Amino acid sequence: MIDWFLALTAAEKTYFIIAVIASIFLIVQIVIMLFSLGGGDFDVDDVFDGDVDTDSGLSIFTIKSMTAFFALGGWCGFVAQTFMEDNIWAPILIAVATGTAALFGVAFTMRGIAKLQNSGNIVKSKLVGATATVYVSIPENRSGRGKITLTAQGRYMELDAVTDGERIPVDSSVEITEYSEDFAVVTKKQQ
Q1: In sequence order, which residues have a C-beta less than 8 Å from that of residue 163 and are 6 or more positions away?
Q2: What does the pLDDT profile of the chain (191 residues) look like in tens digits?
Q3: For the chain, which domains are there?
Q4: Whole-structure pTM value
């Protein structure tokens, strides 16, 4: 094995070392991702109620994408240099082109994966003004709780509800006027 490595040209050794080191980093990253140690998620329960929507755009120069750049570029440059011993520029061009393709491929893939994430949290302030249907009749003057159903924020929900007015029967259309900690305050919509 050592004799094989010593027989390589300087360019082949350079590509090989870059490829091996980057591949080791790539394998470590995959192991970390498989065991969920490298995620950017965290939970902060009941600390605040808000809606944060960020689109960081395309993050090209990340550790993952740069590792892919050097791993794929290194291996392709090594193979190209092995077959084109007399030409030094073609393997460099091939290494940079394939590395760049890997860089952008990883960046677009990670952006696509990030768009698939959904926290599942309900933003209570966005429920105010929504129309719902009474599922279990709502007693008058907050003397008890009923239930309403609605589709909001991309999901079907069933919520406890109270009203300040008269009793609201099943299948009535209501509007959410306020959302408290664990129930909605509703008013019957005029037909």
Answers
A1: 138, 139, 140, 141, 142, 146, 174, 185, 186, 187, 188
A2: 789 989 899 999 999 999 999 999 999 988 888 887 655 544 444 444 444 444 555 778 888 899 999 999 999 999 999 999 889 999 999 999 999 999 999 989 888 887 776 556 667 778 888 899 998 999 999 899 999 999 887 788 888 999 999 999 999 999 999 888 778 888 888 76
A3: 2-116 (no CATH), 124-188 (2.40.50.140)
A4: 0.55
